[in-house]
């Protein structure tokens, strides 16, 4: 069975030192001390250590073969978004990352599909780079759950979503710069508590502002199984019903109506939660994702799904059909 993992991160091992180049800020660069590992530096500070499966396409293909997975959808690591930078500098950085991914896809067309990154702090530049991503053959882009703490419901982002819908570019929304991060540094809470809330923040913002109502063709996948959105949909719907004066001010449609109109990935680490997600979304709207190569991801690439006794059709939808539909790609190009 064709398996496409639609949520994986990659970074070019050779990159300019952006902080030196632009003369400010804490941009990411990689410091390679020994083969096979690299230190990810944020400005001059150590951020995290990564292994070669973060950048080496052959190592990645080999690791994926161990989990019977043929295709990886790659996008940058959210810490590379750099939405805080001068827009033109972020555009240059985004172009560098997008060219790297497009080149990878050109060299391994059966194994890699690429998503671009955009300078979301400037909508005109973001649209310009979105169009360039389309011309590079990338079927979509990854954006953050908030843009410098502005929600995706802000009117200034609407032209970008409109351009995505017009160009047929899929969107992946990834949590980053988690709310409350400064106040919960202990116990990895930004990742365990903040990330699911961030994704729900993005979903509620997009739904309540009416983006899906105005742009029914827009194809969006919210990662980590939609964060806390699906498990709190009852509360969200109840809030919509009991305080329409606060919630239904821009869109009169019940948020539950949108279940199954967007996509979510399957990263739940919990078969019972995945059953619930499938019930809410339908299997054609649940994509195989892993968050590879990071430890909080599902690094057995959906093994728990094969152990769940689901109908073969459901497994096939999760493993490839849902992603192919989200990205508007053809199965025959990958088998
Ligand atoms: Zn991720």
3D architecture notes:
- The protein has 335 residues and is of the alpha/beta class.
- It has a single domain (4-10, 53-333), classed as Metal-dependent hydrolases (TIM Barrel, Alpha-Beta Barrel).
- The chain has 13 helices and 13 strands.
- The protein has helices at residues 18-22, 57-65, 87-107, 123-135, 158-167, 189-208, 211-214, 223-226, 233-242, 244-247, 271-281, 303-306, 312-327; strands spanning 4-9, 28-34, 37-42, 45-51, 71-75, 112-117, 140-144, 146-147, 150-151, 170-174, 220-222, 263-265, 286-287.
- The protein has an eight-stranded parallel sheet with strand order 1-5-6-7-10-11-12-13.
- A hairpin with a 2-residue loop joins strand 3 (37-42) and strand 4 (45-51).
- Helix 3 (87-107) packs parallel to helix 4 and helix 4 runs parallel beside helix 5.
- The model has no long low-confidence stretch (mean pLDDT 97).
- The structure holds zinc ion.
- Zinc ion (ZN) is lined by residues 7, 9, 174, 223, 291.
Task: Record keyword descriptors for this entry.
335 residues, alpha/beta, TIM Barrel, three-stranded antiparallel sheet, 39% helix, 18% strand, globular, binds zinc ion
What is the name of the CATH topology? TIM Barrel
CATH class: Alpha Beta
Strand content: 15-25%
Order of helices and strands: EHEEEHEHEHEEEHEHHEHHHEHEHH
Bound molecules: zinc ion
Lateral strand order in the biggest sheet: 1-5-6-7-10-11-12-13
The CATH homologous superfamily corresponds to Metal-dependent hydrolases
Seen as an oligomer or otherwise, the chain set is single chain
Low-confidence stretches: none
The helix count comes to: 13
> What would the principal axes of the Cα set say about the shape?
globular
Mean pLDDT equals: 97
> Separation of termini?
9 Å
Q: In percent, how helical is the residue content?
A: 25-40%
CATH architecture: Alpha-Beta Barrel
Structural class: alpha/beta
Rg, alpha carbons: 19 Å
Number of β-strand runs: 13
Report the sheet with the most strands, covering strand number, pairing sense and barrel closure: 8 strands, parallel
What is the domain tally?
A: 1
């Amino acid at each position: 069975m064709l398996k496409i993992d639609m949520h994986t991160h990659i970074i070019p091992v050779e990159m300019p030192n952006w902080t030196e180049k632009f003369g400010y800020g804490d941009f990411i660069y990689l410091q390679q001390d020994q083969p096979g590992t690299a230190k990810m530096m944020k400005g001059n500070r150590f951020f995290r250590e990564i292994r070669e499966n973060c950048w080496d396409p052959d190592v990645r293909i080999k690791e994926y073969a161990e989990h019977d997975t043929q295709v990886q959808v790659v996008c940058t690591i959210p810490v590379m978004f750099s939405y805080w930078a001068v827009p033109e500098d972020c555009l240059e950085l985004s172009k560098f990352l997008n060219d790297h991914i497009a080149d990878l896809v050109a060299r391994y067309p059966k194994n890699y599909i690429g998503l671009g990154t955009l300078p979301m702090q400037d909508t005109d530049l973001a649209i310009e780079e979105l169009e360039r991503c389309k011309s590079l053959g990338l079927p979509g882009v990854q954006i953050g759950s908030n843009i410098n703490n502005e929600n995706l419901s802000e009117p200034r982002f609407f032209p970008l979503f409109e351009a995505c819908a017009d160009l047929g570019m899929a969107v992946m929304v990834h949590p980053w710069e988690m709310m409350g991060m400064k106040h919960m540094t202990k116990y990895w809470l930004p990742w365990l508590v903040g990330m699911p809330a961030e994704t729900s923040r993005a979903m509620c913002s997009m739904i309540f502002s009416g983006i899906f109502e105005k742009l029914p063709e827009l194809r969006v996948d919210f990662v980590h199984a939609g964060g806390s959105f699906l498990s709190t949909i009852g509360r969200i719907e109840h809030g919509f019903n009991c305080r329409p004066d606060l919630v239904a001010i821009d869109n009169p449609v019940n948020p539950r109506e949108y279940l199954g109109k967007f996509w979510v990935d399957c990263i739940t680490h919990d078969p019972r939660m995945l059953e619930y997600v499938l019930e809410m979304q339908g299997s054609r709207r649940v994509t195989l994702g892993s968050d590879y190569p990071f430890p909080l991801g599902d690094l057995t690439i959906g093994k728990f799904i094969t152990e769940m006794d689901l109908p073969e059709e459901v497994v096939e939808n999760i493993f490839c059909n849902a992603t192919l539909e989200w990205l508007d790609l053809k199965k025959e190009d990958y088998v």
